[in-house]
Amino acid sequence: MATINSREDQDGITIGWQAIVRKKGYPSQTKTFRAKRDAEAWARTIESEMDRGVWRDRSRAEATSVADLLDRYAREILPEKKSRQGPSSVIRILTASELGKLSLAALSPEKLALYRDRRIKSVSKKTGRTLTSQTVRHEIALLSRVITHAIKEWGIPLAHGNPCLQIKMPAQSGARDRRLVDNEEEKLLSACGDARNPWLRPVVVFAIETAMRAGEILESYGTADTETGIRPQKTPGLQWSNVDLKKRTAHLPKTKNGEARTVPLSSRAVVTLEALPRNLDGRVFGVTYEGIHQSYVRACRRASITGLTFHDLRHEATSRLFEKGLNPMQVAAITGHKTLQMLKRYTHLRAEDLAKLLG
User: Taking every annotated instance into account, which residue ranges of this chain make up the domain Tyr recombinase (predicted)?
Assistant: First the structure.
């Protein structure tokens, strides 16, 4: 049975109501409210949960903010992860948002849904475009992982479970399907050859031949976070010490997914590398991604090619590997995709090419 006591100041004026719930087998629960009806409602809820055997101690959830939880996860768990750059950026965004100010106990599906809907309509400071649904999915998914870890490993139970699992995720955005068509490759390489940056053409050829990510080919300093000014960790790019022209391989000791892989090199890729000057600093390509990006954009403009990002070259290369007859496991070993689902998003086979295979 709950006890409701008035709280009075030194003049005997009631300033609040204290609800106390005592039940055998459970720790005593106490909470103070301004209104008596709120105290009574809270006590009834606690008693009902205890009677049904579903009561969970809310004290830690009420004392821990979402920002505090994210901070602890960043300090204790992220350093153990192979890939930290992306999660760190998302954690900073979530911490600075309205969700960061809430206690875990106050983090409800309704508040998460409001956050989701607001973010979907937000404009990126970096691109000036509306955020993609995939970006918002990543944010909610990371928060969900953090909360699940807190429940399972840190003993912070939530009365109604993980609220992130109780809302509808934004629809997954469709995979990009831009590929080089007609004589676009010829026009692109011609425009790259005319560029003032001598590294542009060999970099583009190498990207098309290997399906490697930009950060695996080129040194990159990354873009500073627009909200914090913090830059992600620099990627070193491909090093001559990891290239074996005789075996026709390029070893990548550290990749985006945290695992090393060795990429086989086509004859065209080998010829491209053999023609390059050697840099004293050990880099295969003596230019950063930031230093070549605008050159690539201008080359596309000169070639009258629209909608083809540098990352689309990885899609092009991945699709070509399948067109050469490699099976999914072989392609994944080259591209570094860990799941067939992700590999599928990077593969865009032309119907006319498939028709030729059918005879």
Answer: 175-359
Are residues 49 and 55 in contact, defined by beta-carbon separation less than 8 angstroms?
yes
Q: Beta strands 243-244 and 249-252: pairing type? A: antiparallel
Of 56, 256, 283, 348, which is the active-site residue? 256
33 SS3 class: strand
Catalytic residue among 201, 213, 261, 315: 213
> Which one of the listed residues 311, 324, 338, 344 is annotated catalytic?
311
Same domain, 298 and 204: yes
Active site residue 311: yes
Mean pLDDT of 234-262: 89
The domain of 78 spans 63-165
Q: Is 36 considered catalytic here?
A: no
Residue 171 domain flag: no
The predicted model scores a pTM of: 0.63
pLDDT in tens, 54-98: 777 778 888 899 999 999 999 998 887 655 556 888 999 999 999
Question: Is residue 22 one of the residues assigned to a domain?
Answer: yes
Q: Catalytic one among 115, 289, 296, 346? A: 346
Is 213 known to be catalytic? Answer: yes
* 102 and 194 assigned to the same domain: no
Active site residue 320: no
Active site residue 256: yes
Tell me the pLDDT tens digit for each residue of 258-302. 789 999 999 999 999 999 998 888 999 999 998 899 999 999 999
Q: Are 185 and 205 in contact (CB under 8 A)?
A: no
Query: String of b and e for 268-279 (b: at least 16 CB within 10 Å)?
Result: ebbebbeebeee
